Each structure stands twice: as structure tokens, then as C-alpha cells.
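The following record pairs a protein chain with its ligand, pyridoxal-5'-phosphate.
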Amino acid sequence: MSIELSITESQPDAETSRWRDLHDRVMMPNYDPLNMVPAHGQGSWLWDEAGNRYLDFAGGIAVSALGHANSELVEALTGQARKLWHVSNILTNQPALELARKLIDATFADKVFFANSGSEANEAALKLARRVAQDRHAGDKYEILAFENAFHGRTFFTVSVGGQSKYSQGFGPNPAGISHLPYNHSHAVLEWFEKHGDRVCAVILEPCQGEGGVIPATREFVDTLRTCCDRYNALLVFDEVQTGMGRSGSLYLHEKLGVVPDILTTAKALGCGFPISAVLTIDGVAEHLAVGTHGSTFGGNPMACAVAGKVIDIINTPEMLNNVEQRSRQLMAGLENISQRYHLFTEIRGIGLLLGCVLMEPYQDKARDLMTLCNESGLLALVAGPNVLRLAPPLNISESEIAEGLARMEEAVARFVKL
Ligand SMILES: *Cc1c(COP(=O)(O)O)cnc(C)c1O
């Protein structure tokens, strides 16, 4: 079916709505994007077709950690684009090897596997955990323990491991051998392991739940999981797809929690918008992913790896991580201030520059309304469930940009409380 494209004839504002209308005609209906259609970006700012400017505290869902059109990343990408785009994994390539070495040098890991998305990294991590258990123990040691409200991706395995049944139901029989417990409930974990521990091959969690409401894990909880995994020969998998790459003020959040996982997955900000993900692990686990057991056509492609190599150079520095801590304190304090004056949030929680503002009782289920008003005030924000406004500004954002974002947010809040 052909669709008429006469968009350029219209006026700027009408043009934006024409693009949005075209979306509804040509795209499958699984997304419901905002009306604003961005045209270009620079640093912490985005512009739409009509020339309106937005401060971007959404960052493409915690992806654009160095803002838009970062000149060093543009250089890394275009430099590689002129040399070599793609070879597949029947050949290796230098950017992939250099990136692997950087990730290993910066973390607990000895080995790396590259994929293209958070879902794919988690899919690989879970398959690896099942494989390790099968090789070492045989029999029925295949149970995966995950947590309620967790989000691990949208492939059928990862969405089944995720803890929101509304995402995993309605597609026929789910993969078996997956259990869910409440997050941050050590007692429930200890009890459950006593009954089922021998069958467990892996425990997977987000060290701060992102989509589930921006809920940081407690130290006690991750300690308990580490202890149980050690006692019952299960692997501890940290899904740091959203929390990783400096978002918490450490390169990876597990460093702050004082617990070392056996497997860690990282994606989102790893390529700052160029698709790439990685699974990190130690030698004794990695060896089970023997030749032919798993793979990816695009995983570890030279363009993505050249960008991610530059991203890690820029993010993994004391200056950048320090900026995350300082801007986090500034943003938290400003949000607390707004909350007190408008009686808006019960709690502002999160890690570093991943913050969740929990709406008070009178505003239940209205997070998306507040997000839309923020957008109208020139501030892009996110939600995490129906009651939590989520903010994920770039890690290199300036003090004055945070202040500007708070001013725009207050403008939106003043309208929101009168709705
Ligand atoms: C976004 C996200 C994923 C899925 O990543 P995709 O790139 O969308 O596949 C998995 N886990 C967590 C914690 C995430 O935030």
C-alpha cells in the first residue's frame, strides 16, 4: 500500500502533527509516542520540527548519557564508518577487541560477549546460566529466580523472567522454570531457597529496578542473594542495562553495593544511542559458552564497538562520575523543594542520575499526565509505572541546565496540581 507523503508543504506546527498522524498509519500500534517529533539534538537539548527547544531529562530512556550529537562520539562513529562497518563473527575486529579489553580492565570480568540490545544481553546471560548448570550438575538444576516488577527485556525468555505478567501473557505457553519473589524481601528469599535452592541455576535482578518504579536494592538484600547463590551453587546475574555506565555515580552500581555478581549485563548507555550490549563474566563461567553454543550476526560490530570504546573512555573518569554525584544532589534537593511547596511526592528515590518521584495519594495513576505537562513546558521526562515520574538526564549535564530543568518542571507542576 502506498502512502502519500506531502509533509513538507505544511506549516511547522501542522507539520509535526502530520508526522504523528503518519506514525499511526504506517507503524504497528504497539507504541503511543508523544506528539512532539524531534528533528535534531545537541548536548542536553532537543529541537522539534517547529523549532521548539526541550531540555532532555529522558535521554531516550537512560541511553543518551553524553547528550545528543556529542562531538567525540560523532568522530568515533564517522571515523569507523569510513573504514569498516561490518564483518560478522566469522571474523573478529579491532574495535571489538579494544572495547572488550577496556570493559575487562574496568570491571570484575575476565571475558565479554557482545550483542545489540539489553534483551539480547539478558537472553545470552540466562542461556549461559542454564548451560553452566547443565554442564556442571546435569538433572533438574534449571530454575531461574527473578523478582516481581522486574524488567529484563522483550524477547520471550527475558519477558517471562521479567516480573510484570501483563507484558508476558497472551503469547501462548511461557518458557518454564522461572520463579518470582517480592523485591527487597530477604526473608522470602531465604525461605524459598531452603525449599528450592538445589534446583536454582541463577538469580537475576536489577540492582535498582528501573521500569518497575526506580527502586534501589538494599545492601542487605543483595548480600542475602550473594550468600544464597554461593551456598546453592547458583549464579548471581546483575542486569545493569539501565544502572550501568556511570548512571549511579560508579561505572556499575554493584560496586556501590559491595557485591560482585558472576554475570553482568550492560546496554543502554554503553553505545549512548548506537545499539550495543555486552555480557560480562568470569573465566570459569565463560568457558561454558563453547564454540557454537550462542551467537549474533551484528553483535560486536566495528561501528558500535568504536563508539562504545569512546563512551567508556569519557564516562569512566573521576570528573564524570563526580559530576553525576553532584548533579544528583542538586536535582534531588530541587525536587524535594518542589515537592514540599506543592505537596506532590511521597518520596524521591533512585541512584545518581536515575531518579523516581513517587506521586502522593491524590495524584494516583497520574504520572503520565505530569510527564505530558513537563513536555509542554519544554522538559522531556519519563514515567516508571503509573505513579512514578522518572528522570534520567545526561551524565555530563551542567549545573545551570539542572536548574533550568527544575524551573521548567515547576511550571508544569503548578499546572498539574490544578488539573
Ligand atoms: C531497557 C532494559 C532492558 C531491555 O533493553 P532493550 O535494549 O530494550 O532490549 C533490560 N533490562 C533493563 C534493566 C532495562 O532497563
